[in-house]
């Protein structure tokens, strides 16, 4: 007989809406059953040796330990505690830590966080957040802040179009010559790497994060984004990246084309003058010399190009939440999105 040498801790949490016996019982059963299912705990070569249980101080109607005993977990040691009040902690929450003994290498823990408790470990939940909107709406800034709040990655799809635009600018190719652009695209490598959560755009191996933020490249990106060959290639690349990570993804057709099944969708906008001012300040702070009126006219032209293009035009997805940031700070926008996400877990 082999000796049991590995002890693995499997964590889980779930929330309830009300402090009553029925809800606490149902939630405890749901959480424990899901932990058992995802970790194959019916396997006789795995043995639950103890379960640590804690509940927030607002749950007193039923002790989850009693529910676990009724479920048949009689051989495991149960340790139950009431958590102290902690400011801003998640309310109405039941937590379990299931300690399992198994043979070496038999168990890679699959932690389980359900309902609003998903916000405690967003890294364990596979989902995408799509943020669409017109130029200058602040999509990239908001997406970065939101991703940081949730502890996930941010994919700036606009940067990918900017990289293509930069390549075409450097080669001096006519933007209306789709055949020539397609030929260049076939020999171009655009990669996205994440370093400490920060996106780096590599154009043929060169980090072009700085080069793609100049005004001329913004205009070039607007032109190449209307070409079918460019959109087809980049949409494919974006979907591939989104399958690998939990991400906030911003662009102009994320919720309608790239990820129509994204769990959360937002359409971020602001009036023309506000968007132009934001873009003008961004360019000025980057050391570029440009006047406000030019930026405003470019914003309006870009809106026309984006909303009237034949391929994946800019529009609000039917199930996207509209957020007008004209009179909101970035932090207020992020909090509004977070509130929606927490309410719709």
Please give a handful of descriptors for the protein shown.
alpha/beta, single chain, 5-stranded parallel sheet, 345 residues, 11 helices, 39% helix
Proportion of strand residues: 15-25%
**Largest sheet report:** 5 strands, mixed
- What proportion of the residues is helical, as a percent range? 25-40%
C-alpha termini separation: 45 Å
H/E order of the elements? Answer: EHEHEEEEHEHHEEEHHEHEHHEH
Continuous helix count = 11
Number of strands: 13
State the secondary-structure class: alpha/beta
Mean pLDDT: 91
What does the radius of gyration come to?
25 Å
Large-scale geometry:
elongated
Please mark out the parts with pLDDT under 50 across 5 or more consecutive residues, or reply none.
none
For the largest sheet, list the strands in their spatial order: 3-2-4-1-5
Q: What would you say this structure looks like, in words?
A:
The chain is an alpha/beta fold. Helices cover 39% and strands 22% of the residues. The chain is built from eleven helices and 13 strands. The chain has helices at 21-38, 64-70, 139-150, 157-171, 178-186, 215-224, 228-242, 254-258, 272-285, 292-308, 330-343, and strands at residues 6-15, 46-55, 77-82, 93-102, 112-113, 128-132, 153-156, 190-195, 198-203, 206-207, 247-251, 264-269, 321-324. The strands form three sheets. Strands 3-2-4-1-5 form a five-stranded mixed beta sheet, with helices on one face. A hairpin with a 2-residue loop joins strand 8 and strand 9 (198-203). The radius of gyration is 25 Å and the shape is elongated. The two termini are 45 Å apart. The relative contact order is 0.13.
